[in-house]
Amino acid sequence: MSPTFSLVILGASILLIVVLIGKCRVHPFLALIAASLLVGIGTGMTPTAIVSAFEKGMGSTLGFLAGIIGLGSILGKLLEESGGAKRIATTLLRLLGEQNAAWAMMLVGFIAGIPVFFEVGFVLLIPLIYVVARQTRINLLYLGVPLATSLMVVHCILPPHPAATAITGMLNADIGKVILYGLIVGLPTAVIAGPIWVKLTCARQAPANQAQFLAERGEGSIDDSQAPSFAMAMVTVLLPLALMVGKTLAIPLLAKGSMAFEWVSFIGNPLIALALSICFAYWSLGLRRGLGMGDLLDLTHRCFPPLAGILLVIGAGGAFNDMLVGSGIGKVLADVLGQSNINPIILAWLIAGLMHFAVGSATVAMISTAGMVLPILGQNPQYSPEILVIAIGAGAIGWTHVTDSAFWVVKEYLGISLSEALKKFTGATVLASVAALVFTLILSRFV
Questions:
Q1: Residue 269, CA distances (Å) to 109, 174, 307, 423, 428 in order
Q2: Pick from 100, 182, 198: which is nearest to 148 by CA?
Q3: Closest Cα partner for 364 from 302, 399, 315, 326?
Q4: pLDDT for 386-418, tens place per residue?
Q5: pTM for the structure as a whole
Q6: How many CB atoms are closer than 10 A to CB 7?
Q7: Residue 289 gets which letter from DSSP?
Q8: Closest CA to 424 of 221, 110, 145
Q9: Which H or E run contains 286?
Q10: C-alpha dist (Å) from residue 353 to 14, 20, 82, 357, 434
């Protein structure tokens, strides 16, 4: 099979994903299965080899991720139900003052977004934005865009979010380093595409029709009297990150095979770190506030149904990646890209951005891109897999537009026109994507 034909099959499989998801409204799980079959059949794999590659890719991907995603969802649900996220938001707003409300909402999104999905975080915190907008007569865009953009940044580049965690495993990257690099790249990115962006592009004063829009949503108030303290909420949110990053920082200082090495490796493993964090969160956000184990059991049950679609998409993405390897397309792609002069970091960013623009799902974009980028690592050992994980996430941040459900959530809850949402929110995500790329390229010079 010629390299040209292999690349044609790859292009056709990507086009099939785009058409099925974007035009035919087929679920991404089914679209990725169809693309995997196209790759297998088109490259001449035997039927049994196709099935074997699919099972291996899906099983190996979910074997690493299923427990992590499940535990992460419990942590996010506890933060949501306990009022911990609202406590963080109200405290930061009080500390920074209403004159710096855009900065406060950016920080809220960055911190509270660590354990919760984008849509959950935005819907959870939008009542606070409404309250602040009523009291201060500040434009909803001035508050909502920094919140939404920081949530999107964290969603794409920071584990334990599903897609970021998935591609970390696919590229065999160290999750502690990915978290550390994600924080280094993500925070200045959220600043530039959040408070600075709205200061330059949005009027601070509320438009004339905003009062009517807020009135239709009721008076509303934020009651955090029963919520955990700010310190307790912050410790609970940051504990898993601290354990995972702590392992990465401590391992080089310990003798391999020593008892300390073994225990640090064990505690810093993502699954164990999240399990320990859940134990702490059950106490800090549940039992300590008077909830019983029955209440916590009910809360835990409610975490899992929304995860089914995410797990299936990630599993099918892993199968698609394994099909690229098993069919030989991965090697062909690596050879072709290895002969080009394009920086692999820029290439990973560009592919992820184009995929997100086309299919409207950052998760699908990141999973698909990881399969195309993985072969490059073998030919470019000077580029760390952790940096490529951040580059893929940086690309997926951008072009959040009409094909992405996140776009419509932001548009409807902020009550803005389609053109305004495209200018302000989509523009912010494109700026965030470019800024994250620049910071990733700079960081790659030092790691």
A1: 26, 10, 22, 41, 34
A2: 198
A3: 315
A4: 999 999 999 999 988 877 888 989 998 998 888
A5: 0.88
A6: 14
A7: G
A8: 145
A9: none
A10: 14, 18, 36, 6, 10
